[in-house]
Write a structure and sequence with these properties.
Length: 230
């Protein structure tokens, strides 16, 4: 073992799911967006075009469409999450070659943190063949604090995760494709990895490294090759 590796505390890896562990933009996101729009139209009895605008606006404003639907329309979270993610993920999940092997080479505990519902997250992990590698899945259902939803990039959520994981912030490495999520984590002392796969949206607009990003990679294989990092 190298001296650099021996100085590193055993990490807790906190992984995002969509567009991090797999390329959701290729197939799954269009399916989810369509179902979300249909679900909003059905639950609120509004035209599809209006529903699609609400879906996009609430995501931009709150970080999750669900928050806006609860806040402004009082919809049932469980009903919306079921309707908007009720489809077969088999053969729609695309990931890098050797994903499981590359994850296994990363030392330490592995936890998933996604703004998606638990049922969807577990189905995707199973399809990827990596479910056994994760000791826990934190999904949108776990992000209700005092009866209010606090998804990524909520600071309260990240503080709650640290408490539940029972580790110091500097032992955690957060891997996510969304910069605003990583910025909040960095402010709490968590090490941050920006996953910028060239096949996912907006990746070409990222240049250089933001001060709150400790490492930028384009694959889990690259992450293993560059760990440990400063």
């Amino acid at each position: 073992m190298s001296s650099a590796t021996s100085k590193q505390p055993t990490p807790v890896w906190l992984f995002d799911l969509d567009n991090t562990l797999h390329n959701a933009s290729a197939s799954l996101f269009p399916a989810i967006d369509g179902l979300m729009t249909q679900s909003i139209a059905q639950l609120l009895t509004i035209p599809v075009a209006h529903a699609n605008q609400l879906r996009h606006d609430y995501w931009q404003r709150y970080g999750a469409t669900l928050i806006g639907l609860i806040k402004h329309h009082g919809i049932c979270p469980e009903q919306f999450l079921h309707l908007s993610h009720d489809f077969d993920v088999v053969d729609q999940v695309l990931c890098e070659s050797g994903l499981k092997r590359h994850l296994q080479r990363l030392p330490g505990r592995k936890v998933l943190c996604t703004n998606a519902p638990a049922n969807y997250a577990h189905r995707v992990l199973n399809e990827l063949g990596i479910q056994p590698l994760f000791e826990r899945v934190f999904s949108i259902e776990d992000m209700f604090l005092q009866q209010r939803c606090h998804p990524k990039p909520s600071r309260r959520l990240m503080q709650q995760l640290l408490s539940r994981l029972n580790v110091p912030a500097h032992h955690v490495i957060f891997v996510d494709d969304t910069l605003r999520n990583l910025k909040v984590a960095h402010q709490l002392g968590i090490r941050t990895v920006h996953f910028a796969h060239p096949g996912t949206p907006f990746s070409s607009t990222y240049a250089g490294r933001a001060p709150y990003i400790d490492l930028r990679v384009s694959s889990i294989k690259e992450l293993g090759q560059r760990y440990p990092f400063g």
